[in-house]
Amino acid sequence: MSTPHVVLTDVTRIHGDRNMAVVALAGVSLDIHLGELVAVMGPSGSGKSTLLNMAGGLDRPTSGTVTIAGDRLTDLAPRDLAKLRRRRMGFIFQDYNLIPSLTAAENVALPLELDGTRASQARRQARRTLDLMNLMELSDRFPDQMSGGQQQRVAIARALVGSRRFVLADEPTGALDSHTGEEVLRVLRERCDEGVAGLLVTHEARHAAWADRVVFLRDGVVVDSTGHREQAEDLLAAGEAAR
């Protein structure tokens, strides 16, 4: 078995203190390998988004460690952590977050330019990434000239441009119809099959079925997991029944 690309070890996140303390995560451990898509499911308030924030270095754990490709995020200074996020991670959110005044290629190139890559070189890499994802026809379109599904696929390209090997998706199909959502998940699945590590937060079992592994959270604790995509519906039903 290869070394995991992403390792969360006994991660706990507590908001507030003393009598006002709220435990968002309680001793969660999770490994994600390159080429693997892991889905996290659970009811509202179960800690799904908190787990994604921990894995992506957007928030720091109260205790426990998070390691990406051998670098322990919990040991990094804020500037170094921001650099690691820019260069190695890509984030996909429900609301796309594309800049309206930029074309698809310019949106995809933006993270590279912010990291110091020359604009011309960044645009070439952006177009190459769009081409690999069969999105070249969108290169010169602005967000308001695209459908929601097209915008989300461009957001995936932006998350993967350059040397990023870890993509985190928080309910990326929430604003899309079912058919378009499936197309977006297919693109994400293909990128993981090509060697990217993926973490998908979702409340839809049919979306989790695209993953290699499904982890179910309740009250900040991992209560079950499965390595078989077709078991996602059963896992969701079991978790809801236990509430």
UniProtKB/TrEMBL annotation:
<protein>
    <submittedName>
        <fullName>ABC transporter ATP-binding protein</fullName>
    </submittedName>
</protein>
<dbReference type="InterPro" id="IPR015854">
    <property type="entry name" value="ABC_transpr_LolD-like"/>
</dbReference>
<feature type="domain" description="ABC transporter">
    <location>
        <begin position="6"/>
        <end position="241"/>
    </location>
</feature>
<keyword id="KW-0813">Transport</keyword>
<dbReference type="InterPro" id="IPR017911">
    <property type="entry name" value="MacB-like_ATP-bd"/>
</dbReference>
<dbReference type="InterPro" id="IPR027417">
    <property type="entry name" value="P-loop_NTPase"/>
</dbReference>
<keyword id="KW-0067">ATP-binding</keyword>
<dbReference type="InterPro" id="IPR003439">
    <property type="entry name" value="ABC_transporter-like_ATP-bd"/>
</dbReference>
<dbReference type="InterPro" id="IPR017871">
    <property type="entry name" value="ABC_transporter-like_CS"/>
</dbReference>
<dbReference type="Pfam" id="PF00005">
    <property type="entry name" value="ABC_tran"/>
</dbReference>
<dbReference type="InterPro" id="IPR003593">
    <property type="entry name" value="AAA+_ATPase"/>
</dbReference>
<dbReference type="GO" id="GO:0005524">
    <property type="term" value="F:ATP binding"/>
</dbReference>
<keyword id="KW-0547">Nucleotide-binding</keyword>
